[in-house]
Amino acid sequence: MPTPTSTVDTAIASARGLRKVYGHAQTEVVALDSVDVDIARGSFTAIMGPSGSGKSTLMHCMAGLDRPTAGNVVVDGAEISSMNERQLTKLRRTRLGFVFQAFNLIPTLTARENIILPVSLARGRVNEGWFEQVIEAVGLADRLSHKPTELSGGQQQRVACARALVTQPSVVFADEPTGNLDSVSSHEVLSFLRRSVDEFGQTVVIVTHDPATAAFADRVLFLADGAIVGDLADPTVDRVIDALRAHSDASRARRASAGPR
Ligand SMILES: Nc1ncnc2c1ncn2[C@@H]1O[C@H](COP(=O)(O)OP(=O)(O)OP(=O)(O)O)[C@@H](O)[C@H]1O
Asked: Which UniProt keywords are present, listed alphabetically (predicted)?
């Protein structure tokens, strides 16, 4: 199926023929198999699928955290598959933002110091106007001098989101960003990510198991057995649940028709 031209024209991140194989011989696992994907600039994309379907592997290969076995990844015009480690580190630090389930804040630094860390590490200057906008949007203005242990889980994850955005990255990648949060804090974090797309034109890609989380996105990609098996625009919770059910039924049927291995 050809990719719509409009998506390709505005794609900020693309993968072609992406394949990732872990292990060798009997222990070989094909985590991704010929995946083609385009992420539109200024969009919010959720990646869903059963455990082991390749969601994290896809995100890690697109974010330069893992190297594909074959295929190409282009982020904001840069072909990252051929970059060396130094180039990848620089790309991750200056052009990508990351949010992880476990927050990953530095405990000895204040919220402000954690947020500006990517700028400090790159020996750059903080864009104070942008910093103020992000802090206002994330609702952390009165918490900037607090250390992570003095913040709730939701506040810590909002610090992590602000840190991901401080460099105005090409893409923010978030792996289960609400996995450790209660529903109120999850809503705050997701609303912030949504706002960063709608008001600031940022691009966000998240991995999630949760239909309510995926419903914050503009688009949901469904993975099964290392391949993209579905692509849902304008998701609602109900439509995501229906799609998950349909893909799970199709996957069971595929396995049954393939017979015992
Ligand atoms: N470092 C690794 N070494 C070997 N196999 C791996 C490695 N990382 C992932 N895999 C395998 O690759 C496949 C895809 O893993 P991946 O973590 O991408 O799936 P996922 O959809 O993100 O799963 P989950 O929802 O459980 O996090 C799985 O079969 C997994 O066991």
From this structure: ATP-binding, Nucleotide-binding, Transport
Report whether residue 54 contacts ligand 1, using a CB cutoff of 6 Å. Answer: yes
Q: Which of the listed CATH numbers 2.60.40.1930, 3.30.70.660, 3.40.50.300, 3.40.50.1820 matches domain 5-258?
A: 3.40.50.300
Q: What is the pTM of this model?
A: 0.92
* Residue 102 alpha carbon to ligand 1 centre in Å: 18
Q: How many helices (H) and strands (E) does the chain have?
A: 10, 10
Distance 51 CA to ligand 1 centre (A): 8
Predicted confidence (pLDDT) per residue in 184-204, tens digit: 999 999 999 999 999 999 999
Ligand 1 neighbour 52 (Cβ under 6 A): yes
Indicate which atom in ligand 1 lies nearest the CA of residue 60: 18
Cα distances from 178 to residues 16, 42, 111, in angstroms, run 29, 21, 19
The string of pLDDT tens digits covering residues 90-133 is 899 889 999 999 999 999 999 999 999 999 988 889 999 999 99
Using CA atoms, how far apart are residues 252 and 250, in angstroms rounded to an integer?
A: 5
